[in-house]
Hints:
The protein is 40% helix and 14% strand. It is of the alpha/beta class.
Amino acid sequence: MRLEGSQETLLITLYAKAMDNRATPSILRDALADDLVRHIDYDFERFGLGPSDIRGLALRSRIIDGWTRAALQSRADTLVLHLACGLDSRVFRVDPPLEVDWIDLDFPEVIRLREALLPQRAGRYRTLPSNVMEPDWIERLDNQRPVLVIAEGLFPYLDEHRVRELVRRLIEHFPQGGQLLCDLYSPFALRLLRHASMIRATKARIGDWTRAGPRSLEAWHPRLKFVDEPRLSEVAEVAALPRAQRWLFKLYDRSEWLRNLGRVARFRF
């Protein structure tokens, strides 16, 4: 199966997690990602990922995994909605109880690839083949309980007005409320990303944004409130990294300018 543009970028995060799994120490310990990379005939080295790219992507997923577990421990009836899931093995890493409703959503061709490559998952896990910006799939979801929306690696490929509309529709469909976990990038960071070797290798389109900082998103909807963002240097796995990498994460935590380039944020609504 041929992936193009933003769809092909799912292989970037998959490869980063596989390389992290082979490193000592591993932040994410995603053995399934490692196994997939070993079985996919693809030149992953064309992405030009360096150690900081690999560690950063693995750490981002590690944080979102932790937030996901916390949300399910707080409300076991939460619907998990994983947007643009790609080949991410998050449902296997988090390993929620079988009675948890978990939906992995992506383009139909990506879902077909996912179902061909990843193991089957028992319980109430299911996939939803759809373009995330299509207008009708949200209306088909059960909205009589809270929702956890995971949007990792999605927003940079959409224009700001499209993300705003998507978030608005999700909030208004779920009167019981929920959380949004996502990564955000400043307009300057998106300009840099357009020229990054990994993006040029896929020819993916990067979206246009005018906002920087998670609190600016609160203007999108009266119910949307910024909760927090992690201090990367305080994540337990970071303590075992080489000194230079630990120093970089400490510098990141201390600099608002660096955090605005790219950060992981948690919202409630």
